[in-house]
Amino acid sequence: MILPADFEDSIRSFMDDEEYASFFRALQENSPVSIRLNRRKPFPATADSVEEPVPWARNGYYLSHRPSFTFDPLFHAGSYYVQEASSMFLEQAIGQFATEPVVMLDLCAAPGGKSTHACDVLPEGSLLVANEVIRNRSQILTENLTKWGHPDVVVTQNDPSAFSALPAFFDVILSDAPCSGEGMFRKDPAAIDEWSRENVEICRQRQRRIVADVWPSLKPGGLFIYSTCTYNREENEENVRWICREMGAEPLSLSIPAEWSVTGCRDAGDPIPVYRFLPHRTRGEGFFLAVLRKRGEEKGRIREERHPDGRTNRKKERKKSSSDKEKPTKVLNWLTETATEHYDLFAEDDRMFLFPKRRTEELDALRQSLRIVRSGITVAELKGRDWIPAHDLAMSAGVFLRQGVFPVEPLSYEQAIGYLRKETVSLPPETPLGYVLLTYRDVPLGFAKHVGNRANNLYPQEWRIRSTRLPEEAKAALR
Ligand code: SAM
Q1: Ligand 1 test: best mutation among 133, 203, 373, most atoms within 8 Å of CB?
Q2: Which residues of 364-390 are buried (b: 16+ CB within 10 A; e: fewer)?
Q3: Which residues are known to be catalytic?
Q4: Mean pLDDT of all residues in the chain?
């Protein structure tokens, strides 16, 4: 690996010769492979490649090798997310500070590594707003969050400046903004060619702009989590110091064991609590994270804070009546008690979706200011005059779909891959006609409609496996 001379100088400015040699050696090694399991879905014991846990993430595991994820049906079913281990450290920041239900914004969220993780570690009853400014990346984010199956999520597609319409709205904001990507050199050598001092400066400026844009929408007393996957001090310590200085934020310390070998502050100023992952010290790629608290008195709940004139109640009524529009009994019958007790069912255009009752007011506010890509869990879609079960419902991990409503048909590996390629499914002739939930190793993959001589494949067209080759390793699963 040949590194740009300016990059080497930048690293050597905070490492002595001996440490730089270890760092350089680590960059020549293979990237570790790691996954994070979905705590709401079963992960059948196929994980023969699971080696050891990631110390800072309850459901994170290193794998001994990189399997062909595309050809693993459980990957498409959202049983796990393939995520670089160091970045799973987000769990510590959320877990140690967010102890009550919160409204969290993941501002730069695609493809969804940290959003899917946040879903699993935020206190129950929290709401996650996952935002991605680039349109096609917001689609990938939506796909990954749908597969993850967590209901208390809104996906938005907005520039950070749009959030100024929501002052003091969020309890937690994560900014995992675009960076110079030095921490990805080993995993993605193309990042080396894109690196330049000029680009570091562009990133540093952009990161500051993003923070400044979104800062007003953080509540006083709220948490700001700043992260990058780069090593240089300009985009890391310097930006954290800038946030402290310009925004008056207070940096917070995390309590972590020394054996994790996470490195601290690497600049010359007074030490501030920041967390660096360096590949010669921790098993993972380069990562940086800091937690800051917005100064000011912690206010009450959003609803009291934002509408002191009582507008809240009017909005709530409006929302409720819209959710009470006549719903086909057929759809209501598909849902569990959890769904009907704790979630409102909204009809909107040609879909029906569930959204947590306690968060409908926040949804209303988000809708007034932002471009919403997805909210809650879509349970039914209108096709012609018929409401059909939506893919989200299959992905909602059994929480919302009442058992026994649809016949369940387990698929073999080969059938599962065929289904995910959007091929026609053939079901045993005794399968009842109508909608059928297809599973692979007890994990729902999606729906098909059995029409007698064949079954129509309802897997989302745009998410299908496009590759027609089947790698040798995947073929082994057929045996
Ligand atoms: N948090 C993501 C995860 O864990 O999967 C990775 C985020 S990636 C480092 C940064 C994201 O910021 C990209 O998806 C990129 O499209 C988006 N982005 C690019 N320019 C941006 C801007 N000016 N403001 C906000 N986000 C931007």
Answers
A1: 133
A2: ebbeebbeebbbbbbbbbeeeeebebb
A3: 229
A4: 91
* pLDDT tens string 298-315: 654 333 333 334 343 334
pLDDT digits (tens, 9 = 90+) for 441-454: 999 999 999 999 89
297 Cβ neighbours under 8 A, 6+ residues apart: 220, 221
- CA-proximal residue: ligand 1, atom 10 (nearest): 178
How far, in Å, from the CA of 367 to the mean position of ligand 1? 22
Block residue for tokens 């059928």:
436
The secondary structure element, H or E, covering residue 459 is: none
- Residue 184 Cβ contacting ligand 1 at under 6 Å: no
Asked whether 111 lines ligand 1 (CB < 6 A), one says: yes
Q: Is the CB of 114 under 6 A from ligand 1?
A: yes
Q: What pLDDT does 261 receive? A: 97
Contact predicate 380/331, CB 8 Å: yes
Decide if 195 contacts 182 (C-beta within 8 A).
yes
112 lines ligand 1 (CB under 6 A): yes
Average pLDDT of 241-251? 97
Tens digit of each residue's pLDDT (9 = 90 or more) over 159-187: 999 999 999 999 999 999 999 999 999 99
Residue 319, pLDDT score: 42
| Nearest residue to 225 (alpha-carbon basis) of 303, 121, 313, 146 | 121
